[in-house]
Design a protein that fits this description.
single chain; 439 residues; alpha+beta; 3 domains; two-stranded antiparallel sheet; 10% strand; disordered C terminus
């Protein structure tokens, strides 16, 4: 094993150690001690030809995928399906990278067969440094574009597609030596075709994964939009009921006169029936929330009353009377997601624990300030600056706060999240000079 292979092993191992680190998944069972063992197995793939115990490219690729899978599934505790897809996908990413960057044209340098300086030692040092930089840039960019958390939602078809790309890359590499004789202009022209084919496969694999992630996110956001629309209809129905009660109260004098006439006529049964109908219609649906915004009052009632009935201490002191510049749909998406998260966090706590949801805020200078604090059972992991979902179905969850962030972006607002081991709080600052939603 020379310096170049050592640098490759160090860079690649550091990459998988950081990239496959669990952050958005609730582990089934972690085995951190297994990582050094798997890293030791991985080193066998970097031995030079004289020591290489695994001679065939197909076997080496399969071994790499198996090590990745064991790393994610057993060491990190991620469910098997996303583990299998992540292992095969990133094996393809790695294999195609090797074939393109360290392919026929550059292999003689990175294998140590040709020195770029007069000294073999310094040539290997220089190439090793270049090797590390290239790998860090390549894997670093892909890690930003396609973070590991986005693997959620992978299905068997996706695993098969990624495995197919790996198989194609292996096939073209294994047959490359036999195909060179068909190129009249020799190995140089063949190398160009070889690199082009593998770049095309790499772009196809990346495009497939980006498309898959967009489809998962689109499906999840569509579910959220449908839920928000249903919630708005429910709140509107509640408001219509409240209007009916207000009308009854306004006409109370007329009802009293009608009831008095029935009693004077000694029509007791009719009076009882009239009174019963009146009491049923006059049941008070107003639940004690007064923010200055009827939609928000209804949203609070819809989201917080079940929590209050479960023993959660709910307190609100929010003046939203000057928040009419926020579109009702946006308000429903923004506050609905925040209240759902708060209620779910309290529901996860034991009933004898301190459970609370506190909402406060109002106009502050040229801003609308909203603060929501709730008790929490744990300090959530962060994913792209936002707390990651702890739900098992990662594909259809984890988009709530991202939706809140998107709504805030339309109004130039900001969101600040603070966490301790027992309290989670979120603060929204929305400029009051903002108008309706920008499309």
């Amino acid at each position: 094993m020379n310096f170049i292979w050592i640098s490759s092993f160090a860079a690649d191992t550091a990459f998988i150690w950081l990239f496959f680190k669990r952050s958005a998944y609730t582990p089934q069972r972690q085995r951190k001690w297994l990582k050094p063992v798997l890293a030791a197995l991985l080193i066998t793939l970097y031995l030079n030809d004289s020591l290489m115990p695994i001679p065939y490219a197909s076997v080496r690729v399969a071994v790499r995928a198996a090590i990745y899978f064991l790393w994610i599934f057993l060491a990190e505790g991620v469910p098997w399906r996303p583990s299998a897809y992540a292992a095969v996908f990133w094996t393809g990413i790695y294999t195609l990278f090797q074939n393109v960057v360290f392919g026929p044209r550059l292999y003689i340098f990175f294998s140590g067969q040709t020195d770029i300086t007069g000294s073999r030692f310094w040539s290997q040092i220089i190439i090793s440094l270049i090797n590390i930089v290239i790998r860090l840039v390549y894997f670093g960019i892909l890690s930003r574009i396609l973070p590991f958390e986005g693997i959620a939602g992978a299905e068997v078809f996706h695993i098969l597609f990624a495995a197919g790309v790996c198989a194609m890359s292996i096939y073209t590499k294994d047959t490359s030596a036999r195909m060179r004789s068909f190129f009249e202009e020799g190995p140089s022209l063949f190398s160009v075709y070889f690199v082009i084919i593998h770049i095309a496969l790499l772009l196809a694999l990346i495009a497939f994964e980006m498309s898959r992630r967009r489809a998962v996110e689109k499906a999840s956001l569509q579910i959220q939009n449908n839920a928000a629309e249903a919630l708005m209809r429910s709140i509107e129905d509640r408001q219509m009921s409240e209007d009916a009660v207000r009308t009854l109260r306004h006409d109370l004098k007329n009802h009293a006169v009608s009831l008095q006439l029935l009693l004077e006529q000694e029509d007791t049964e009719a009076a009882k029936a009239y009174l019963s109908n009146f009491l049923e219609a006059a049941k008070n649906p107003v639940d004690g929330f007064s923010t200055g915004n009827r939609l928000l009052d209804g949203l609070f009632a819809q989201k917080l009353l079940p929590a209050r009935r479960q023993g959660v201490n709910v307190s609100t002191s929010l003046d939203f009377s000057e928040g009419s510049f926020i579109d009702n749909y946006d308000l429903c998406v923004m506050m609905g997601n925040i209240l759902d998260n708060a209620a779910e966090a309290c529901a996860a706590l034991p009933k004898d624990a301190e459970r609370f949801i506190k909402i406060s805020g109002g106009p502050a200078a040229n801003y609308m300030l909203i603060e929501v604090a709730n008790s929490s059972a744990r300090k959530a992991d962060l994913l792209n600056g936002l707390p990651a979902t702890s739900k098992k179905d990662k594909a259809m969850h984890g988009f709530g706060l991202r939706s809140v962030k998107n709504v805030l972006a339309h109004y130039g607002g900001t969101m600040d999240i603070e966490q301790t081991e027992s309290v989670y709080s979120i603060t929204l600052m929305i400029p009051r000079k903002g108008g309706a939603r920008n499309e």
